[in-house]
Amino acid sequence: MGKVTAKKSLGQHFLKDLNIAKNICDSLIEGDFSDVLEIGPGMGVLTQYLLPRTDIKLTALDIDIESIDFLHDKYPQYVDQIQYGDFLKLDIDSIFENNFAIIGNFPYNISSQIFFRVLDYKDRVPEVVCMIQKEVAERLAANHGNKTYGILSVLLQTFYKIEYIQTVNENVFDPPPKVKSAVIRLTRNDRKELDISFKFFKNVVKTGFNQRRKTLRNSLKPILLQNKIDHEYLSMRPEQLSVEQFIELAKMIKNVLET
């Protein structure tokens, strides 16, 4: 076990188990991509395993200029592939022309925002491998009927298969954080279209979960307005509906609103 000072992914918590770092990188499997974006490389705990790979071309993106300077000094031959930037504001088309995978120890305070951005590029991102807070990982991978099943569970599972790869304990960081971490992999499924706009579908899902203790008939009133819809799904709570049922419900609501 070695120690690498990688200050990015967990604030000032340093990942010291290189076996876990390598396992994260090895979890990025070959797919319909050659370009890979690493979000928040920090001091390069993952980068050191990704840059030498011949099956991918890595672009590492960080908003911390000190990390960029450090990595430029450490890997002068890869300077063009290590860039300053914010993924949440990034002009993707200026960097990638084709499909690209995403990997990283995501900053935990913005991990949900990162996943919403991934959804914006779902047709170009076939795979995501990341370490995030364990609680969030469990939520994303949860099945319907589970109390942790929520908005991102539905939206991501609509287009991705989500695999919970491993739990990462606090003691592999220095100092140990107060929460456990987890590694997950998202792999794009075969769904191409929803037959309704993703914007509308997302609005139905988010509105449905805004008052998750209520039935969907009550929580969806801002969308249903005065329209009377009689369907068994509306008497259920949002966490009881599977992804397929949410899609079916959204289509039905859309049809009613357009008639």
Task: Provide an overview of this structure.
The chain has helices spanning 18-26, 47-50, 65-74, 111-120, 134-141, 151-159, 198-210, 216-219, 221-224, 243-258, and strands spanning 14-15, 35-39, 57-62, 82-84, 100-105, 127-133, 160-168, 173-174, 181-188. By secondary structure, the chain is an alpha/beta fold. Strands 4-3-2-5-6-9-7 form a 7-stranded mixed beta sheet. The chain has a two-stranded antiparallel ribbon with strand order 1-8. Strand 2 (35-39), helix 2 and strand 3 (57-62) form a beta-alpha-beta unit. Helix 4 packs parallel to helix 6 (151-159). It starts with 13 loop residues before the first strand and ends with a helix.
Which features would summarize this protein structure in a list?
single chain; 259 residues; alpha/beta; Rossmann fold; Helicase, Ruva Protein, domain 3; 2 domains; seven-stranded mixed beta sheet; two-stranded antiparallel sheet; disordered N terminus
Q: Outline of this structure?
A:
By secondary structure, the protein is of the alpha/beta class.
* Count of helical regions: 10
CATH C-level name of the largest domain: Alpha Beta
On the 0-100 scale, what is the average pLDDT? 91
- Just name the CATH architecture of the largest domain: 3-Layer(aba) Sandwich
| Rounded Rg | 20 Å
Q: H/E order of the elements? A: EHEHEHEEHEHHEEEHHHH
Estimate the global geometry from the Cα principal axes. Answer: elongated
Write the layout of secondary structure elements.
Layout: E1 14-15, H1 18-26, E2 35-39, H2 47-50, E3 57-62, H3 65-74, E4 82-84, E5 100-105, H4 111-120, E6 127-133, H5 134-141, H6 151-159, E7 160-168, E8 173-174, E9 181-188, H7 198-210, H8 216-219, H9 221-224, H10 243-258
Parallel strand pairs: 2-3, 2-5, 3-4, 5-6
Antiparallel strand pairs: 1-8, 6-9, 7-9
